[in-house]
Specification:
Length: about 550
């Protein structure tokens, strides 16, 4: 049975959109009066798979995240939409697939359709204080209207008294760059792993596709050391929540932004690249120590936060809330995509149910082992290439260096979690293959996958002549009773402030304002992918 999506709604969104002022756009999604607005905290760790003690990894040292799992629900099947950060983050922040809004090529600067907004804007319109500490990396410049604060100093403690908050902290100590540091025990991000908590390379349990050498074992051990360092950082944030007396009033999410930062994991859409940990602690609602088996996709994160906050999920969002009053039926499938990775072009799509994974290789003539300069700096990758050149790889270790790829891949992830035994030609699995192939085609058409459009042509459609358009200057209309602000640029968000100076706090305009006569008002606007507008100024009354 296909995923439940609205074809007419999707078609309207992709072909045209209705011109709305910012205030009308956001006022349609405000929470009902009197609804409880919980605090929400996101702790995001970079480049980690579910390689934690609470997920059954006996090699891991992650006591604080393991403890969090005993206090909330551990999601066993959470998946990124890509095996790399920026395309995945674009899906998280918009609730839209990167392949629909044109943000799938790594390190591009896209112009999404006009109805696409960063979901924290809907929270801000509903009264939330929204902070991001501090990475954005959305494949487009973060609009100034997305966050109340987005910096290394951003914190829920800067909000007004009793104001509900949505706070994001991104822990970068586990990023792949930490694995290949010259001194693997070097201090990073203010955290040092104590000697007794460091991982012994000799005890590492390597995936079967890696060569078993001291260099590869060292990288695997160092990767787990970075997780331990990250675990300490997460513990500090949880302590701050306790110290502020907010633990019982805050829904905490812990998650990884895609799979582990090692070859054939990060950048790939095998489970090693897209399956991530997700733990949610919701005091009084989610049973402590419970395990959720439903499929969850990154595209669901934003709609789920809106659902928890009591804010109506916009119809154009493709994600499905998995918690809160607007919780959707469980997913039957999740989807993922691999497109250009830095300088290397690729085109792979994946669809997965709870057991089987289907991959469609649209460039089968290209080897898995394309050179990517940044990826090739990893000692494991260098070692792997050296052994291949010397003809010393055996069994699954050789698959990555096949000259071509099969058009289709099918894996039984229960029996073959490392995805090395392709069942696409298995007579016993043709029914599964056909079902997932059909679902892939349905999803690709339903979501208007832009991947088959050459990137230069796609970017020319988005930004003709490579020139950034500038958002129109807002118009301020006011009298002694009210202030209204509009912008002629379709899909623009409007910010306003009554403060002077460069450090002014810009609030999101979400409807008619009531200001005292004589108040000096500043306003500016932004559409994602455009330059900010010029500033409009007025004295009210």
């Amino acid at each position: 049975m296909p995923e439940q999506t609205s074809r007419p709604t999707r078609r309207r969104f992709l072909q045209s959109s209705t011109l709305l002022t910012s205030g009308l756009l956001f006022s349609q999604n405000l929470p009902a009066a009197g609804g409880k607005q919980p605090n929400i905290l996101w702790i995001s760790a970079e480049d980690i798979s579910p390689d934690l003690g609470c997920y059954g990894d006996s090699y891991a040292t992650s006591p604080n995240i393991d403890k969090l799992a005993t206090q909330g629900a551990r999601f066993a099947r959470c998946f990124s939409v890509a095996g790399v950060c920026a395309p995945s983050r674009s899906a998280i922040i918009t609730g839209m697939y990167q392949t629909t809004i044109g943000t799938m090529h790594m390190r591009s600067r896209a112009v999404p359709p006009p109805n696409v907004h960063c979901f924290p804007e809907y929270l801000r319109a509903a009264g939330y204080y929204c902070t991001n500490n501090s990475k954005t990396d959305y494949q487009f410049e973060s609009p100034f209207t997305a966050w109340d604060e987005s910096s290394g100093e951003a914190h829920w403690r800067n909000r007004k008294k009793a104001q509900p908050f949505f706070a994001v902290f991104r822990l970068t100590v586990s990023h792949e760059s930490s694995i290949r540091m010259p001194d693997s025990r070097q201090e990073r991000g203010g955290d040092r792993v104590p000697p007794e908590m460091r991982h012994d390379p000799a005890k590492a349990q390597l995936p079967p596709y890696y060569p078993d050498t001291p260099i590869v074992r060292k990288d695997w051990a160092t990767y787990h050391d970075t997780i331990t360092a990250m675990d300490m950082q997460a513990a500090d944030l949880l302590r701050q929540l306790e110290d502020d007396g907010l633990a019982d009033d805050t829904i905490v999410f812990f998650w990884g932004d895609h799979g582990r930062g090692l070859p054939r994991a990060k950048r790939w859409i095998y489970d090693s690249g897209i399956q991530v940990p997700l733990i949610v602690r919701w005091p009084g609602v989610l049973e402590p120590g419970s395990v959720e088996e439903d499929l969850v996709s990154f595209v669901d994160f934003g709609p789920t936060v809106l659902s928890l906050a009591g804010v109506r999920v916009p119809e154009h969002m493709q994600g499905r809330p998995f918690l809160g009053d607007q919780k959707a039926p469980p997913r039957e499938y999740i989807y993922a995509a691999r497109d250009r990775m830095d300088e290397a072009y690729e085109l792979i799509r994946a669809v997965r149910d709870k057991r089987y994974k289907y991959l469609r290789n649209y460039m089968p003539e290209v080897t898995y082992a394309q050179h990517i300069n940044y990826m090739d700096e990893m000692p494991t990758m260098q070692e792997w290439r050296r052994l291949h050149a010397e003809g010393k790889l055996e069994g699954p270790q050789k698959l990555f260096f096949s000259e071509t790829k099969p058009v289709e891949e099918l894996y039984d992830t229960d029996a073959d979690p490392h995805e090395v035994n392709n069942l696409a030609d298995s007579p016993d699995h043709q029914e599964v293959l056909l079902r997932l192939r059909t679902e892939h085609e349905r999803w690709r058409k339903e979501t208007n996958d832009l991947g088959l459009i050459p990137e230069p042509e796609l970017m020319e459609r988005m930004r003709p002549g490579s020139k950034y358009e500038t958002t129109a200057t807002p118009q301020i209309m006011h009298d002694r009773l009210s202030v209204k602000i509009t912008c002629a640029t379709e899909g623009a968000s409007i910010g306003y402030t009554t403060e002077s100076g460069e450090d002014a706090h810009w609030r999101l305009y979400s409807g008619e304002l009531k200001l005292k006569p004589g108040t000096a008002l500043r306003a500016k606007a932004i559409r994602i992918g455009f330059n900010e507008s010029a500033e409009a100024n007025a004295v009210v009354g």
